Amino acid sequence: MDFELNDIQTMVRDTARKFAREEVAPLAAEMDKEARFKPELVQQMGELGFLGAAVPEAYGGAGMDYQCYAIIVEELSSACASTGVVVSAHSSLCCDPILKFGTEEQKKQFLPPLASGQMLGCLGLTEPQAGTDAGNVKTTAVLDGDAWVLNGTKIFITNGGPAGVAVVIASTDRSAKHKGLSAFIVPADTPGYRVAKEEHKLGIRASSTAELVFEDCRIPKDNLLGAPGEGFKVAMATLDGGRIGIAAQAVGIGRGALEAAVAYAKERTQFGKPIASFQAIQWKLADMATELDAARLLTLRAAWMKDRGLKNFSRESAMAKLFASEAAMNATREAIQVFGGYGYIDEYPVERYYRDAKITEIYEGTSEVQRLVIARALLRD
Ligand SMILES: Cc1cc2nc3c(=O)[nH]c(=O)nc-3n(C[C@H](O)[C@H](O)[C@H](O)COP(=O)(O)OP(=O)(O)OC[C@H]3O[C@@H](n4cnc5c(N)ncnc54)[C@H](O)[C@@H]3O)c2cc1C
Q: What is the pTM of this model?
């Protein structure tokens, strides 16, 4: 067992940390306030290989392992959680299913522009009546000659606004319920594809969360991703990987809050001493650091399992997301406490970290769902 990053992972971490500190952190508060992502960051991250980290070089990616991808998402999220999820949703929810289930032609067509940052990707699974109950998708896809015709509405789609391509889960056989779902690659410039609404949110405000509407949206027959009826399987396998990205995002958010709290505790004096000298403050910092380290280890273990091509890492990725999201909530809440009243106002970043952390307990499966996944695996084994 080796707890050290290898040379490539260390280099990736240092590059991502430098970029996060120098290019992302100075923009984070402004992007949060304006609820708008700076497109130039997409271009810069594309050039650095962050948008195709785990995509093989043959398809225009950086050819790194999933551990490197998790390291990148943690570093970006420690500066700005919105930036973390832009990369995470793009990579795990769009590039990854195309890589895993796509034909050679699909990979050649879609992965190079995604990996370079020429366009962003998203996953359209959730619908108004299909959240946790993801098998209850009502969007339909009907074969008409050499085209699939999509009709329906997807909600809460990360990167939905700017995305150039969406992986969409739709029903091809309503009678078969979740076994009648199929996955499709849908270019956003297809007639009948419409971004209907952008949501206003508590946190990760700079990332787009959009409603996508499909009205007689005709895509080529060849844009079916995987076999007909495999859509639920595609979605679940995608979420197994995606949860590693969200766990890394949570670790990054928590670490950003911890670093801010440590710096403030050393600098703020009360009763003539730095507040860091009070044991009550020290214990908070110690608990935050311990939980976040444990969360990172769970995250990297799940990524390591995915890298080794181990078939089933659902339990481990659910554990990583569950623990990391709760560690992020604890760390950001306690960071505000360390800052006192200054933590509650937007002069300091910790209130933003707190707002950003909450979503990690909800998307790509709520904490309740992660516990279900873990318990089912325990009871099955
Ligand atoms: C900012 C944001 C970004 C998102 N990005 C995407 C995206 O890119 N693509 C996408 O497809 N979706 C996305 N989602 C959707 C997200 O994954 C869902 O919101 C989430 O899975 C929960 O579904 P729901 O909101 O319908 O809640 P519900 O399923 O209605 O759940 C409500 C509550 O009931 C609990 N619950 C439900 N069923 C059970 C059960 N069987 N056992 C125990 N408890 C249960 C839940 O845990 C929760 O506490 C995003 C959501 C948000 C808010």
A: 0.98
79 and 25 Cβ atoms separated by less than 8 Å: yes
How distant, in Å, are the alpha carbons of 116, 254, 359 from that of 313?
28, 24, 22
Residues in the chain: 381
pLDDT tens digits, 49-61: 999 999 999 999 9
Residue 196 has pLDDT above 80, yes or no: yes
Looking at the fold, whether 90 and 18 belong to one and the same domain comes out as: yes
* pLDDT for residue 210: 98
Q: Which of 154, 366, 369 has most ligand 1 atoms within 8 Å of CB, for mutation?
A: 366
The span from the CA of 44 to the CA of 367, in Å, is 33
Expressed as residue numbers, the domain containing 140 is 121-229
pLDDT at 77 over 80: yes
Find all residues with CB under 8 Å of 156, minimum gap 6, and list them. Answer: 126, 199, 209, 211, 363
Distance 157 CA to ligand 1 centre (A): 12
Question: 101 and 139 in one domain?
Answer: no
Which residue's CA is the closest to the ligand 1 atom numbered 30? Answer: 131
Domain membership of residue 93 (yes or no) is yes
Task: For residues 277 and 273, give the distance between their C-alpha atoms in angstroms, rounded to a whole number.
Answer: 7
Q: For residues 82 and 26, is the Cβ–Cβ distance under 8 A?
A: no
Q: Are residues 52 and 159 in the same domain?
A: no
The Cα-based distances of 67 to 8, 95, 101, 321 in angstroms read 10, 16, 21, 15
Q: pLDDT digit string (tens) for 26-47? A: 999 999 999 999 999 999 999 9
Residue 1 located in a structural domain = no
Ligand 1, atom 7, lies closest to the CA of: 157
- Residue 131 DSSP one-character state: S
- Three-state secondary-structure class, residue 91: helix
| pLDDT of the residue at 83 | 98
Q: Which of 197, 229, 261 is the last residue of a domain?
A: 229
Cβ-based neighbour number of residue 176 at 10 Å: 11
Look at residues 91, 169, 102 and name the one whose alpha carbon lies nearest to residue 130: 169
Residue 217 lies in a domain: yes
CATH of the domain at 266: 1.20.140.10
Measured distance CA(65)–CA(69) in Å, rounded: 7
